[in-house]
Specification:
Strand content: 15-25%
Mean pLDDT: 95
CATH topology of the largest domain: TIM Barrel
Distance between the termini: 25 Å
CATH class of the largest domain: Alpha Beta
Bound molecules: pyridoxal-5'-phosphate
Radius of gyration: 24 Å
Shape: elongated
Helix content: 25-40%
Low-confidence stretches: none
Order of helices and strands: EHEHHEHEHEHEHEHEHEEEEEEEEEHHE
CATH superfamily of the largest domain: Alanine racemase
Amino acid sequence: MTPERAVALRAEVDLSAIRHNVRHLAGRGAIMGVVKADGYGHGAVPVARVLVEEGVAWLAVATVPEAVELREAGIETRVLVLAAPLEPYLPQYEAWGLDAVVSSAEVADAVIARAPFVPVHVKIDTGMHRLGVAPEAGAETVRRLTEAGVKVAALWTHLATADGDDAGFALEQVRRFDGVLRDLGDDAPPLVHIANGPAHVRLPPLTSRPALVRLGGVLYGLDSDRAMASDTVDLRPAMRLVSRVVHLQTVPPGESVSYGRTWTAERPTRVATLAVGYADGIPRSLSNRGEVGLRGARYPIAGRVCMDMTMVALGDPEGPGAEVCLGDEAVLFGPGGPSAEEAAAAAGTLSYELTTGLAGRVPRVVSGG
Ligand SMILES: *Cc1c(COP(=O)(O)O)cnc(C)c1O
């Protein structure tokens, strides 16, 4: 048994899929590659290296420590920290050469007190109501920063409905954003950014100005919205979560499986135990709902997902499921099993939550760099 064979659970990350996706998505606006949450669970540093090799000139992360991880790995690209900066964190932006978000009048004041500070991206709250300056205060905020000597690199906003059915509200948000640009006239920053991945793929171009598109999930081949037309967009999933069969048994009729006895065998049933559980990031809500891929077929999860193990019903002890052996690979999501989108739908969540929720104890096996 090679050391890798000894790992009963691993998340395989295929960087060539990310390379394919970024090439496929290039061309409609310069890409800001979003590698927050450890590159949506795929590994921020290896993903960022691929993006930089492919000519991506901007990266975005959620927090300062995530940005520092990129800098410490030698990545010198412009990095925007998407979070609202609290005043005590501002020196870190200067120390590491990070772009900052101005998300309120208070942040503008704190930035002006440190002028010229670092380049800032003024965020307009056009209807998400999470972060940002109100549209009415947008132009004044930009002018105040510029007059204080702070470089305003971009004006930007975030859409609430790009991955849903309500494209109409997205266009209303763009209209509010355009109002700020009109107020600014010649004082408008040189760059804007509006679209996230779903907006980039689903909506027509949102601006005629020089723009960045903030692409996250689509880079990893993740679809936040199962309605996203995959026949028009050729995205490849970059992650596969693979476990192994560590135990096999035939459960007699009337006997139950796992905590709470929520699954009972109606007839003699072959049951496999997999070395993966909710502590690895598999949602417990997949209990009696999810499926896994084994030897090219799909089998249902039987009973509750446990912390470290999950049972799967293989069917009749004389049927095709009887071929499953100890040590066989079982795909929780990705090629060879349900897609991350199918697994997420069964769990009542979205694929992003599956990949970002993988626990630190799950080894990442990265290939295709
Ligand atoms: C996470 C994030 C993105 C990327 O969104 P995707 O749906 O993954 O493309 C873009 N912009 C902001 C502000 C974000 O927080």
